[in-house]
């Protein structure tokens, strides 16, 4: 296995990002990782060799902060080979319940930060004619659940963005994969990683039930973050990685059901679809 690659992972102080960083270090890769607070990242990773690990305090909502992170990474390690956009958080609530700040903040981290990091890494990837971009979306970016409309909107955006990005950068030898995980046993369902609409409107009983169901699932999710870390490393080693990858049996099953539903809807409305042609 080639361990010459330099990785940059966003949102690495907990959850999937932390599992990935630990696995990369253990496997002998060189890694730069971002967090809102470098101190919490260093504490989470534990003892490390400065030649191998570069903790970066980055404000992902700032283009300048993001681009400096890539400059520091290349300055420290001499290059960059793999970008993993892992930073993100869940946001729940009915569309009319969410205020403008809650909506904007979620798009700033879940979508705009992904755009900023890709804009910052591409000059390096174009110059070296190689590189991997791995964007962490969610099964909610294809088969979303009730009560998570805004989260689904951000993750659909990441999926669509990644699909076109893959085509756009192919001629430079750059590969893009959008990963759609199901439920993994991380801190994702804890208060630190979830935001709910402050303004709750009476009557949205199905949404409240959905949120309670997810809260009850915390600690019993089927997905193992360490196994996911291995899958992500294998993606960067794969000469032909998939563009879309659903991880977790729950994600696979939800995607399969959605594809069946889409196929049925398409055929049922086929006559209407063609009725608008000249």
Automatic annotation (TrEMBL):
Name of the molecule in the record: NADP-dependent 3-hydroxy acid dehydrogenase YdfG
Lineage: Bacteria, Pseudomonadati, Bacteroidota, Flavobacteriia, Flavobacteriales
Assigned keywords, A-Z: Oxidoreductase
Superkingdom, natural source: Bacteria
UniProt family annotation: Belongs to the short-chain dehydrogenases/reductases (SDR) family.
UniProt source species: Epilithonimonas arachidiradicis
GO terms of molecular function: oxidoreductase activity
């Amino acid at each position: 296995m080639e361990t010459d690659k330099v990785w940059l992972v966003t949102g690495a102080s907990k959850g999937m990002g932390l599992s990935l960083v630990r696995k990369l270090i253990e496997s002998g890769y060189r890694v730069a990782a971002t967090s809102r607070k470098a101190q919490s990242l260093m504490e989470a990773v534990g003892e490390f060799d400065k030649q191998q690990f570069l903790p970066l305090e980055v404000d992902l909502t700032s283009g300048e902060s993001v681009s400096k992170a890539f400059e520091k990474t290349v300055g420290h390690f001499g290059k960059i080979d793999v970008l993993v956009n892992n930073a993100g958080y869940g946001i729940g609530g009915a569309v009319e319940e969410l205020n403008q700040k809650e909506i904007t903040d979620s798009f700033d981290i879940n979508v705009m930060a992904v755009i900023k990091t890709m804009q910052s890494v591409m000059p390096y990837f174009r110059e070296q004619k190689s590189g991997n971009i791995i964007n962490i979306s969610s099964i909610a970016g294809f088969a979303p659940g009730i009560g998570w409309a805004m989260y689904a909107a951000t993750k659909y955006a990441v999926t669509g963005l990644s699909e076109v990005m893959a085509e756009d950068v192919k001629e430079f030898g750059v590969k893009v994969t959008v990963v759609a995980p199901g439920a993994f046993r991380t801190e994702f369902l804890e208060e630190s990683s979830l935001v709910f609409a402050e303004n709750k409107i009476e009557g949205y009983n199905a949404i409240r039930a959905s949120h309670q169901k997810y809260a009850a699932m915390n600690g019993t999710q089927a997905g193992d973050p360490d196994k996911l870390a291995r899958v992500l490393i294998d993606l960067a080693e794969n000469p032909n990685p998939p563009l879309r990858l659903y991880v977790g049996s729950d994600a696979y099953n939800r995607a399969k059901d959605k594809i069946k539903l889409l196929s049925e809807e398409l055929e049922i409305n086929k006559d209407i679809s063609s009725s608008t042609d000249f």
